[in-house]
UniProtKB/TrEMBL annotation, chain A:
The keyword Cell inner membrane does not apply. PROSITE patterns: ABC_TRANSPORTER_1, ABC_TRANSPORTER_2. GO terms for molecular function: ATP binding; ATP hydrolysis activity. CDD domains: ABC_NrtD_SsuB_transporters. The keyword Lyase does not apply. It holds the Pfam family ABC_tran. It comes from Acidisoma cellulosilyticum. Keywords: ATP-binding, Nucleotide-binding, Transport. This is ABC transporter ATP-binding protein. Residues 21-254 form the ABC transporter domain. Belongs to the ABC transporter superfamily. InterPro entries: AAA+_ATPase (IPR003593), ABC_transporter-like_ATP-bd (IPR003439), ABC_transporter-like_CS (IPR017871), ABC_transporter_ATP-bind (IPR050166), P-loop_NTPase (IPR027417).
TrEMBL record, chain B:
SUPFAM superfamilies: MetI-like (SSF161098). Pfam families: BPD_transp_1. Belongs to the binding-protein-dependent transport system permease family. One of its GO terms (biological process) is transmembrane transport. This is ABC transporter permease subunit. Its main location: membrane. It comes from the Bacteria. One of its GO terms (cellular component) is plasma membrane. Residues 83-276 form the ABC transmembrane type-1 domain. The chain crosses the membrane at residues 5-26, 87-113, 125-145, 157-176, 208-228, 252-275. CDD domains: TM_PBP2.
Length: 274, 287
């Protein structure tokens, strides 16, 4: 089967299955010739609509690269990648996703509200409309009262919540998050995890979440994709056995701990193979 | 408040004392020659003579002050001998030249940041342009433009623009490049074009670099305007007064023009600072 045919089949399949993201034999290499390094190797993965999928693995396993490829920030070297049945570029142009970076990346000269309206300003939405939209999204992350503040007046955790509100601006069906809480302290992180979980449960978004924290991955996800070190491969996709609604206390249950152990074992296996 | 003012006042008093001493030291030979050799005179009388000469080598501060006040209030505003009128000519040259230098400097920076070839090819020329002494190029430019029928304010403003675009270009190239890769990625996820990235990200980020550049440019602009006024007969402006003063040995005239020039530069800096404060205020207290 040649490439266009395969592509047509995949697009068809992902549309039928309602998949948010389909990767098939996806490989990404950086650089040319001798110095080229393989970041991702033969990734095949399907992320269903409404799933919360965590990508977990050691540093340098390419989890961020995979997320960036979905967002069309990195080009695949070979293989196929479809986002909502479209190429990543088409999905980006269709504003199908919101992206949350490792750092909040807020513009310091804009107020919180104007940071959240930035993407809407760029697509040329009217002032009143985008302000209403920003208020809605800020309320969603619990920062409705901070609209007039400036980023430097907010804590790190609040800044990251603003960046989540901003990522929701296009009303995307897909939320891509690259270790958004990695730089935060544990208590703040717990709070934000719970908040994110509620947001996801309420909105029915598809979420792809990069992390290197096992408890975070297990707590948030419906599916955990365990990856191995360079070149990045998928070791195992673990489907969560936990109920959809979750509380922080659930992290003490035997079920949670058993799931964490499975993830840890898979991580060790992946490490061993590499 | 006293903590702020006290050091300033101390330095000012020290400068004044040194100045009066220097005036005695520099003017003494001439003052002594003017005094009656038969009359015995003490050191104090000599000092007083040194501080009240008509054409001293170094006028005393109070002489400069009274000359300055006299040249501002002693003549009607329409008289060419009014220093305020002359300062007005220089100010007009400065402001118009500065505006053109600012526009050209920013446009050049935009080109350098966005076009790779310009980055490689133009920057060395921009730096080379500033290694040419302005004193050498100013008369040539004024004469060359004059021969083409361009006279008056335009050639002088061109010289000011030539001097002022440089700090603006250097500062703004740096400023437009401050957005980090994360912010650029963010704009990419919005599928924002280069124009949008510039308007929403590069330009506001560059603001922090605009004002320091502008302050350097203001100081250069006043210098440039005065230098530009000197060739071709030194008709109007503070530069013309400086040159005329030096022709006729009128040190007081030169000094009052000098003081006026620094007041002009100070006013310019104050205007930039106020503008900066306004922008900072709009941005919630930080640039």
């Amino acid at each position: 089967m040649d490439a266009p045919e395969r592509l047509a089949e995949l697009s068809h399949r992902s549309a039928l299955a309602g998949a948010a993201v389909v990767a098939d034999n996806l490989s990404i290499r950086f650089g040319q010739g001798e110095t080229a390094t393989a970041a991702l190797s033969d990734i095949s993965l399907t992320i269903g609509q409404g799933d919360f999928v965590s990508l977990i693995g050691p540093s340098g396993c390419g989890k961020t690269t995979l997320l960036r490829a979905i967002a069309d920030l990195v080009q695949p070297t070979s293989g196929l990648l479809r986002v909502n049945g479209m190429t990543p570029e088409a999905a980006r142009l269709a504003r199908a996703y919101g992206y949350v970076f490792q750092a909040p990346a807020l513009l310091p000269w804009r107020s919180v509200a104007r940071n959240v309206t930035l993407p809407l300003e760029i697509i040329g939405m009217g002032r009143a409309e985008r302000q209403a939209e920003a208020k809605r999204n800020l309320d969603l992350v619990g920062l409705g009262d901070f609209a007039g503040k400036f980023p430097w007046q907010l804590s790190g955790g609040m800044q990251q919540r603003v960046s989540i509100a901003r990522a929701l601006s296009f009303k995307p069906s897909l939320l891509l998050m690259d270790e958004p809480f990695g730089a935060l302290d544990e208590i703040t992180r717990d709070g934000l995890n719970l908040h994110l979980h509620e947001l996801w449960a309420r909105t029915g978004l598809t979420a792809v979440f990069v992390t290197h924290s096992i408890p975070e991955a297990v707590f948030l996800s419906t599916h955990i994709v365990v990856m191995s070190r360079r070149p990045g491969r998928v070791v195992e996709v673990i489907e969560s056995t936990l109920p959809r609604a979750r509380r922080l206390e659930d992290r003490e249950t035997p079920e949670f701990l058993a799931l964490s152990k499975r993830v840890r074992t898979a991580l060790h296996d992946g490490h061993g193979h590499a | 408040m006293t903590q702020k003012i006290l050091p300033i006042v101390t330095v000012l008093i020290a400068v004044l004392i040194l100045w009066y001493a220097a005036a005695v030291w520099l003017n003494a030979p001439q003052a002594e020659a003017l005094m009656d050799p038969d009359q015995p005179h003490g050191l104090w009388a000599l000092a007083q003579a040194c501080w009240s000469m008509d054409r001293p080598v170094l006028p005393a501060p109070d002489q400069i002050a009274s000359a300055l006040i006299d040249s501002v209030f002693g003549f009607p505003l329409s008289s060419p001998r009014n220093l305020l009128l002359q300062a007005g000519y220089t100010a007009a040259t400065t402001v118009i030249g500065l505006i053109f230098g600012l526009i050209f400097g920013i446009l050049l920076a935009i080109g350098i940041v966005h076009v790779r070839t310009l980055d490689r090819s133009v920057m060395p020329w921009v730096i080379a342009s500033q290694t040419i002494p302005i004193l050498a190029i100013a008369p040539m430019l004024v004469v060359a433009l004059g021969s083409m029928g361009v006279t008056g304010l335009t050639p002088k403003a061109a010289i000011v623009a030539y001097l002022t675009f440089f700090p603006v270009t250097v500062g703004m190239v740096k400023g437009f490049r401050t957005p980090d890769p994360l912010q650029l990625d963010l704009m990419h996820t919005y599928s924002a074009g280069e124009m949008t990235v510039f308007a929403k990200l590069r330009w506001p980020a560059g603001m922090a670099f605009l004002f320091p550049s502008l302050k350097v440019a203001v100081a250069l602009a006043v210098t440039g305007a005065i230098v530009a006024e000197m060739p071709t007969g030194a008709q109007v402006g503070l530069g013309a007064r400086l040159l005329a003063g030096s022709y006729y040995g009128q040190t007081m005239m030169m000094w009052s023009a000098l003081v006026m020039a620094s007041l002009l530069a100070l006013a310019g800096l104050l205007a930039v600072t106020l503008l900066e404060r306004g922008v900072v205020l709009m941005r919630g207290g930080r640039l």
